[in-house]
Design brief:
Number of strands: 5
Strand order of the largest sheet: 1-3-2-4-5
Radius of gyration: 17 Å
Largest sheet: 5 strands, mixed
Helix content: 40-55%
Bound molecules: glutathione
Length: about 230
């Protein structure tokens, strides 16, 4: 197990410490924490990381204390949360990234669930059928990405819903980064998604985070496939 505090390289007193203290407990991968880490970095929020190695995890003490027996675990002061999308929603509420009203919030939820469907398909391919299913997965990909392209193109602001990033945008952005590693040309026929990824990558705090050792040293997935 190792722990560290993520903050931008600026002196700490220049940061707005808005919420928290936040702690993420997870394995040493991007996995189901990629989106929340990018979101926290972009929001200028510090957080502490506790990275579990699998040997400690299989001893069982932490696992037994987790509501669903799985990580990530997220702590916001005394609030303890599990389920990565519930954590994203909580951060959406805390950091004003959940739409301007109930209707926008409902559409943001819908898009987050759509990203979750893609994340599950991607995870199944990576963990269960990488050798046999990767080529077919890449062939089918335009069919899945088209749906996000249509929403992004229709909204015209560069975000899925409203005119600033919501937690669903961070989740989509992170899943698209992973897909670009899988297939570097996968956004060539999705101009709105391509421009979305370019603009999100260029946001200064995201750029600093994606360029950091803390981010780069973590593999995307637990089995080393990508
Ligand atoms: N739906 C959960 C899935 C959590 C999950 O699958 N966690 C995996 C790692 S990504 C885990 O804890 N595996 C170890 C285990 O099940 O013992 C979420 O989104 O947080």
């Amino acid at each position: 197990m190792c722990s560290f505090l993520w903050s931008l390289s600026e002196p700490l007193h220049h940061l707005h410490h808005k919420m928290g203290p936040y702690t993420i407990t997870y394995f040493g991968v991007r996995g189901r924490c990629g989106a929340m880490r990018i979101m926290l970095a972009d929001q200028g929020q510090e957080w502490k990381e506790i990275l579990m190695d699998f040997a400690d995890w299989t001893k069982g003490d932490l696992k037994a204390s987790c509501v669903f027996g799985q990580l990530p675990k997220f702590e916001d002061g005394g609030l303890v949360l599990f389920q990565s999308n519930a954590i994203l929603r909580h951060l959406g509420r805390n950091h004003d990234a959940y739409g301007k009203d109930g209707k926008e919030a409902a559409r943001i939820d819908m898009m987050c669930d759509g990203v979750e469907d893609l994340r599950l398909k991607y995870g199944k391919m990576i963990y269960q059928e990488y050798d046999t299913g990767k080529d077919q997965y890449i062939k089918d990909l335009p069919n899945h990405l088209d749906k996000f392209e249509a929403v992004m193109a229709k909204n015209k602001t560069g975000f899925l819903v409203g005119d600033k990033p919501s937690f669903a945008d961070y989740s989509l952005f992170e899943v698209l980064l992973n897909h670009l590693v899988l297939c570097s040309s996968c956004l060539d026929t999705s101009p709105s998604l391509k421009s979305f990824v370019e603009k999100m990558s260029a946001r200064p705090k995201i750029k600093a985070f994606l360029g950091s050792d803390a981010y780069k040293k973590l593999p995307i997935n637990g089995n080393g496939k990508q």
